[in-house]
Write a structure and sequence with these properties.
The chain is of the alpha/beta class and 341 residues long. 35% of the residues lie in helices and 18% in strands. Helix 7 crosses helix 8.
């Protein structure tokens, strides 16, 4: 178990030209000034204090993942400022596109702004991606926002079993990286229509005759465990592209591993009472476990699959993100680290 519209409220106003309302003091470490700006929760919240919150409590409830207690206050404090910042980045890229087109003497249409959202299993990255999609779609200049998860680019279970990779599902080698790179490259090339496989969390497998169709959105969010993985050499030893080479912005959702482990175990217990009860569920066999048995099983899965993947592959990519959201033990974001421009 390694893998993990318009609504109520006022429409957000267009952003100003200024990225922040006031300058921030530089952050120091042992070697001097860092390339990041760090803000605590209160400082970050103040950056969008004039922007209205366009989501209702019921919408937030619908968007949050199992075990992620996000509420309206968290959305207003953390994700509303982030959506404001992202909207400014989209506007900045649009202006850069105009001057570049003028320089080249061409009239090409700008390509979608691509955002990567990464982090561990059970850390809440899926909720982050869904909330950002809803918030960004409420800004008037980015009404078309699509979300695609990298789960759809996992190899089908039959292929994973053939390659003896079922116990490493969610590790980098369990994904069809060529197909994923090709998908995002086509999006950033301005293709009119790009298709992605659809993943079913009930059957824990790719749906063979179903696809997600992406048609030139204003913003595309790519969410997954390994979206910030660096490039690897190809079979012939040549340098290859990384998925993040096509990102205009990236977010890493961070937390202490012990907290993520606890969240994973709690989520497993809840899934046993919900999704696992479906007879078609790949994990239906876990539905009859007692609380103690479920906790033991979740701990075993975490320590044998999810923790090694986090330590070996996911956590090392944190420093490659444009922005890091650091959560405390209660799932609330406590600090934000933004890469300087």
């Amino acid at each position: 178990m390694a893998v993990d519209g318009a609504g109520e409220g006022q429409v957000l106003s267009s952003p100003t030209a200024e990225l922040f309302d006031r300058r921030r003091s530089p952050v120091f470490n042992g070697s001097g000034i860092t390339p990041f700006v760090e803000l605590d929760r209160a400082e970050w919240a103040s950056l969008a204090e004039s922007a209205p919150l366009p989501l209702s409590a019921s919408e937030v409830t619908r968007l949050r993942g199992l075990g992620d207690p996000i509420d309206l206050d968290e959305v207003e404090t953390v994700y509303l400022p982030l959506s404001r910042l992202l909207n400014m980045y989209v506007g900045g890229i649009g202006a850069l596109h105009q001057v570049t087109s003028a320089f080249l003497g061409e009239r090409s249409e700008r390509t979608p702004f691509v955002i990567g959202v990464g982090g561990s299993v059970a850390v809440g990255k899926s909720t982050t991606a869904r909330v950002l999609r809803e918030l960004l779609a409420r800004w008037p200049d980015t009404p078309r926002v699509e979300l695609v998860t990298t789960d759809g680019f996992l190899y089908p279970n039959a292929v994973l079993e053939e390659r003896n990779l079922m116990s490493r599902k969610g590790f980098p080698e369990s994904y069809d990286r060529r197909a994923l790179l090709r998908f995002v490259a086509e999006v950033k090339s301005g293709a009119e229509e790009v298709r992605a496989p659809r993943y079913d969390h009930v059957t824990y497998d790719i749906l063979p005759y179903d696809e997600i169709v992406v048609r030139r959105p204003d913003v595309l969010i790519i969410e997954g465990l390994n979206v910030l993985q660096p490039a690897h050499l190809d079979e012939e030893g040549r340098s290859a592209l990384a998925l993040s080479d096509f990102f205009d912005f990236s977010v890493y959702v961070d937390a202490q591993p012990d907290d993520v482990r606890r969240w994973y175990i709690d989520r497993f217990k809840r899934l046993r009472e919900t999704s696992f009860t479906d007879p078609d569920s790949y994990f239906h066999r876990y539905a009859a476990l007692t609380d103690e048995q479920a906790a033991t099983m979740a701990k075993d899965i975490w320590s044998s699959i999810n923790e090694p993947n986090l330590v070996e592959n996911i956590l090392p990519t944190r420093g490659r993100a444009t922005l890091v959201l650091t959560k405390g033990p209660d799932h609330a974001v406590t600090r934000i680290r933004l890469r300087k421009l």
